[in-house]
Amino acid sequence: MYNFENLKITLEFEKGFCLNEKNPFDAVLAYLYANELKKEGKYNPEKYIELPFVKQTNGVYHTSYPIFDEKKAFIDNYVFTKSFDIKLNQKLGKNKNYKPDLARGRHKMFLLNLERALVDKVYFYVCGDKTKIKSLLANLTHYGKKSSLDFGRIKRIKVATVEEDLSLFDKNGNPNRIIPVNVFDNVKSNNV
Protein backbone atom coordinates (compact mmCIF):
# COMPACT_ATOMS: atom_id res chain seq x y z
CA MET A 1 0.00 0.00 0.00
CA TYR A 2 1.97 3.02 1.25
CA ASN A 3 5.62 2.98 2.23
CA PHE A 4 6.32 5.48 5.05
CA GLU A 5 9.71 7.18 4.94
CA ASN A 6 11.23 10.04 6.91
CA LEU A 7 11.24 12.98 4.51
CA LYS A 8 12.59 16.52 4.43
CA ILE A 9 10.60 18.69 2.04
CA THR A 10 12.25 21.94 0.97
CA LEU A 11 10.32 24.75 -0.73
CA GLU A 12 12.50 27.35 -2.46
CA PHE A 13 10.84 30.71 -3.14
CA GLU A 14 11.25 33.40 -5.77
CA LYS A 15 10.54 35.93 -3.01
CA GLY A 16 9.24 35.76 0.55
CA PHE A 17 5.99 34.34 1.84
CA CYS A 18 3.33 35.61 4.26
CA LEU A 19 2.96 33.66 7.46
CA ASN A 20 -0.40 33.95 9.18
CA GLU A 21 0.50 31.32 11.74
CA LYS A 22 2.73 28.30 11.80
CA ASN A 23 0.59 25.46 10.50
CA PRO A 24 1.80 21.87 10.14
CA PHE A 25 2.30 20.62 6.60
CA ASP A 26 -0.63 18.17 6.76
CA ALA A 27 -2.95 21.10 5.97
CA VAL A 28 -1.16 21.65 2.65
CA LEU A 29 -1.21 17.93 1.87
CA ALA A 30 -4.95 17.74 2.73
CA TYR A 31 -5.68 20.64 0.36
CA LEU A 32 -3.73 19.02 -2.47
CA TYR A 33 -5.29 15.61 -1.80
CA ALA A 34 -8.83 17.09 -1.76
CA ASN A 35 -8.15 18.70 -5.16
CA GLU A 36 -6.99 15.34 -6.49
CA LEU A 37 -10.14 13.64 -5.19
CA LYS A 38 -12.29 16.35 -6.83
CA LYS A 39 -10.67 15.68 -10.21
CA GLU A 40 -11.36 11.95 -9.78
CA GLY A 41 -14.98 12.61 -8.73
CA LYS A 42 -14.38 10.98 -5.31
CA TYR A 43 -14.56 14.08 -3.12
CA ASN A 44 -17.33 14.30 -0.53
CA PRO A 45 -17.35 17.69 1.26
CA GLU A 46 -19.34 16.22 4.15
CA LYS A 47 -16.79 13.52 4.87
CA TYR A 48 -13.56 14.01 6.84
CA ILE A 49 -10.53 13.50 4.58
CA GLU A 50 -7.99 11.00 5.89
CA LEU A 51 -4.42 11.17 4.62
CA PRO A 52 -3.54 7.46 4.33
CA PHE A 53 -0.15 8.29 2.82
CA VAL A 54 1.04 10.14 5.98
CA LYS A 55 1.91 8.34 9.21
CA GLN A 56 -0.50 9.05 12.05
CA THR A 57 -0.13 8.44 15.79
CA ASN A 58 -3.17 8.91 18.07
CA GLY A 59 -4.80 11.18 15.47
CA VAL A 60 -1.69 13.35 14.97
CA TYR A 61 -0.13 13.37 11.50
CA HIS A 62 3.65 13.20 11.37
CA THR A 63 4.22 16.60 9.71
CA SER A 64 6.13 19.57 11.10
CA TYR A 65 5.71 23.32 11.18
CA PRO A 66 7.49 25.36 8.51
CA ILE A 67 11.13 25.62 9.57
CA PHE A 68 13.47 28.33 8.35
CA ASP A 69 16.55 30.14 9.58
CA GLU A 70 15.03 33.11 11.39
CA LYS A 71 18.48 34.72 11.74
CA LYS A 72 18.77 34.98 7.94
CA ALA A 73 15.14 35.98 7.40
CA PHE A 74 13.83 39.50 7.15
CA ILE A 75 10.54 39.39 9.06
CA ASP A 76 8.15 42.32 9.02
CA ASN A 77 4.46 43.10 9.23
CA TYR A 78 2.61 43.68 5.99
CA VAL A 79 -0.62 45.67 6.22
CA PHE A 80 -3.48 45.16 3.77
CA THR A 81 -6.40 47.56 3.71
CA LYS A 82 -9.65 47.63 1.80
CA SER A 83 -11.99 50.56 1.48
CA PHE A 84 -14.57 51.84 -0.99
CA ASP A 85 -13.78 55.27 -2.45
CA ILE A 86 -17.15 57.05 -2.70
CA LYS A 87 -15.67 60.21 -4.27
CA LEU A 88 -13.89 58.24 -6.99
CA ASN A 89 -17.09 56.30 -7.67
CA GLN A 90 -19.00 59.57 -8.14
CA LYS A 91 -16.20 61.05 -10.29
CA LEU A 92 -16.34 58.06 -12.61
CA GLY A 93 -19.99 58.84 -13.21
CA LYS A 94 -21.36 55.80 -11.45
CA ASN A 95 -24.60 56.10 -9.51
CA LYS A 96 -24.05 59.46 -7.77
CA ASN A 97 -26.64 58.73 -5.09
CA TYR A 98 -25.10 55.37 -4.18
CA LYS A 99 -24.03 55.28 -0.54
CA PRO A 100 -22.62 51.84 0.28
CA ASP A 101 -22.70 50.37 3.77
CA LEU A 102 -19.01 50.40 4.74
CA ALA A 103 -19.61 48.41 7.94
CA ARG A 104 -20.78 45.19 6.28
CA GLY A 105 -21.21 43.47 2.95
CA ARG A 106 -18.98 43.65 -0.09
CA HIS A 107 -17.87 47.21 0.65
CA LYS A 108 -16.91 46.52 4.26
CA MET A 109 -13.64 48.19 5.14
CA PHE A 110 -10.95 46.19 6.88
CA LEU A 111 -7.34 46.19 7.95
CA LEU A 112 -5.34 42.96 7.86
CA ASN A 113 -1.93 42.65 9.48
CA LEU A 114 0.21 39.68 8.34
CA GLU A 115 3.68 38.62 9.30
CA ARG A 116 5.86 38.38 6.19
CA ALA A 117 9.05 36.36 6.17
CA LEU A 118 11.46 37.12 3.36
CA VAL A 119 13.44 33.91 3.07
CA ASP A 120 14.71 31.95 0.13
CA LYS A 121 13.58 28.55 1.45
CA VAL A 122 11.57 26.79 4.11
CA TYR A 123 11.48 23.12 4.97
CA PHE A 124 9.21 20.58 6.63
CA TYR A 125 9.70 17.12 8.06
CA VAL A 126 7.12 14.51 7.13
CA CYS A 127 6.85 10.77 7.67
CA GLY A 128 4.89 9.51 4.68
CA ASP A 129 4.87 7.91 1.27
CA LYS A 130 7.47 9.72 -0.85
CA THR A 131 5.95 8.83 -4.23
CA LYS A 132 2.44 9.99 -3.31
CA ILE A 133 3.65 13.18 -1.63
CA LYS A 134 5.85 14.08 -4.62
CA SER A 135 2.91 13.61 -6.99
CA LEU A 136 0.74 15.91 -4.85
CA LEU A 137 3.46 18.55 -4.52
CA ALA A 138 3.72 18.76 -8.32
CA ASN A 139 0.50 20.84 -8.12
CA LEU A 140 1.76 23.26 -5.45
CA THR A 141 2.64 26.67 -6.91
CA HIS A 142 2.47 28.94 -3.82
CA TYR A 143 2.79 28.60 -0.05
CA GLY A 144 1.35 30.87 2.63
CA LYS A 145 -1.07 33.77 2.60
CA LYS A 146 -1.74 36.30 -0.14
CA SER A 147 -0.67 34.16 -3.09
CA SER A 148 -2.92 36.41 -5.21
CA LEU A 149 -0.27 39.09 -4.64
CA ASP A 150 2.40 36.56 -5.66
CA PHE A 151 3.79 36.02 -2.18
CA GLY A 152 5.09 32.51 -1.64
CA ARG A 153 5.64 31.65 -5.30
CA ILE A 154 7.57 28.39 -5.32
CA LYS A 155 10.65 28.16 -7.51
CA ARG A 156 11.62 24.58 -6.66
CA ILE A 157 10.49 21.71 -4.43
CA LYS A 158 12.94 19.09 -3.15
CA VAL A 159 11.87 15.91 -1.38
CA ALA A 160 14.71 14.02 0.29
CA THR A 161 14.78 10.94 2.49
CA VAL A 162 16.42 11.47 5.90
CA GLU A 163 17.41 8.97 8.59
CA GLU A 164 15.64 10.44 11.62
CA ASP A 165 11.92 11.19 12.01
CA LEU A 166 11.84 14.88 13.00
CA SER A 167 8.22 15.40 12.03
CA LEU A 168 6.93 15.59 15.62
CA PHE A 169 10.02 16.48 17.69
CA ASP A 170 13.33 18.13 16.81
CA LYS A 171 16.70 16.68 17.82
CA ASN A 172 16.45 18.38 21.24
CA GLY A 173 13.03 16.85 21.98
CA ASN A 174 11.07 20.06 21.41
CA PRO A 175 7.76 19.74 19.56
CA ASN A 176 7.97 20.46 15.82
CA ARG A 177 4.20 20.89 15.54
CA ILE A 178 1.04 21.25 17.61
CA ILE A 179 0.56 18.10 19.67
CA PRO A 180 -2.46 17.77 22.00
CA VAL A 181 -1.49 17.45 25.67
CA ASN A 182 -3.24 14.09 26.06
CA VAL A 183 -1.18 12.71 23.17
CA PHE A 184 2.11 14.51 23.88
CA ASP A 185 3.38 12.33 26.74
CA ASN A 186 2.28 9.11 25.06
CA VAL A 187 3.96 9.98 21.75
CA LYS A 188 7.14 11.27 23.38
CA SER A 189 7.48 8.30 25.77
CA ASN A 190 7.02 5.83 22.90
CA ASN A 191 9.66 7.78 20.99
CA VAL A 192 7.54 7.55 17.85
Largest sheet: 3 strands, antiparallel
Topology, number of strands: 8
Total helical segments: 4
Beta content comes to: 25-35%
Structural class category: alpha+beta
Within the largest sheet, what's the order of strands? 7-1-8
- Give the averaged pLDDT, no decimals: 83
Compute the gyration radius: what is it?
A: 21 Å
Uncertain runs: none
Helix content: 10-25%
**SSE arrangement, N to C:** EEHEEEHEEHEH
How would the global form be characterised?
Answer: elongated
Distance between the termini: 21 Å
List keywords for this structure.
192 residues, alpha+beta, three-stranded antiparallel sheet, elongated
Summarize the structure in short:
The chain has helices spanning 26-40, 86-91, 130-137, 181-189, and strands spanning 4-13, 17-19, 56-57, 60-61, 74-82, 110-118, 121-129, 154-161. The chain has 192 residues and is α+β, with helices and mostly antiparallel strands. The two termini are 21 Å apart.
Could you give the topology of this structure?
Layout: E1 4-13, E2 17-19, H1 26-40, E3 56-57, E4 60-61, E5 74-82, H2 86-91, E6 110-118, E7 121-129, H3 130-137, E8 154-161, H4 181-189
Structure description:
- This protein has 192 residues and is an alpha+beta fold.
- The chain has four helices and eight strands, in the order ββαβββαββαβα.
- The strands form three sheets. The protein has a three-stranded antiparallel β-sheet with strand order 7-1-8.
- A hairpin with a 2-residue loop joins strand 3 and strand 4.
